[in-house]
Amino acid sequence: MRILKSLIFILLMTISTQSFSDIIEQETFASRWLRTKNYTIEVAKAMPEDKYAYRPVEKVMSFDEELKHMMENFGKLSNFMGENEGQEILDQLVDWESKDKTEKLKIVADCFDKVGAKWTKYSEDELNAIVPFFKKEIKMTRQGIFELMNDHIAHHRGRLTLMLSMNEIQSPNYVGW
Fold it and tell me: Which residues cross the membrane (predicted)?
């Protein structure tokens, strides 16, 4: 009987530890995503609107195009999570070029919020489920897609901060912690 109680106790501790670990991971991503959102918006705010068309050389995207591309990536990658998961994000980008800086910053914030909301709606099993991906040889999970989005944002935000420097504009202080 004592062995049975010990086994039940160990089983319950394993289950509750795993659940607690899941909660921590969800909270960690959510708080990191919020910091990523806020920092990205601060970088976008730092560039004056009349310099959004700035392009250091012809073969690279302009500041404005980089920002739009980051949000397009959210929509396109979200579509791999389920049927048309990212379409609402992509729809917001229609006529991006005709919008002013304030409208664009609102869209950026909203796109980040939509992705953040997707994270919280999935269980751990759903996050770890392999989903169809455009590179068939890669076994991609929903969690992997979120990580890919985060890496993609870091890459393109780095390009935005470089464009700020090239225009002698101070980048916002980094807030990755």
Answer: none
- Does a structural domain hold residue 134? yes
By residue range, what is the domain housing residue 56? 36-166
Binding site per annotation, positions: 69, 152, 156
Q: Look at residue 14 in the predicted model and tell me its pLDDT.
A: 52
Give the residue ranges of the annotated binding site for a divalent metal cation: 69, 152, 156
Residue 129, CA atoms < 13 Å, CB-side half-sphere: 11
Specify if 68 maps to a domain: yes
Confidence of residue 23 (pLDDT cuts 50, 70, 90): very low
User: 80-86 contacts: CB < 8 A, separation 24 or more?
Assistant: 80/131, 80/132, 80/133, 80/134, 80/140, 80/145, 81/118, 81/131, 81/142, 81/145, 82/131, 85/118
Number of structural domains, the chain? 1
> Do the domain assignments include residue 108?
yes
3: pLDDT strictly greater than 90: no
pLDDT tens-digit map of 98-134: 999 999 999 999 999 999 988 888 888 988 988 888 8
Q: What is the pTM of this model?
A: 0.82
Q: Write the CB contacts of 100 (distance below 8 Å, at least 6 apart in sequence).
A: 49
Residue 95 resides in a domain = yes
Residue 95 pLDDT: 95
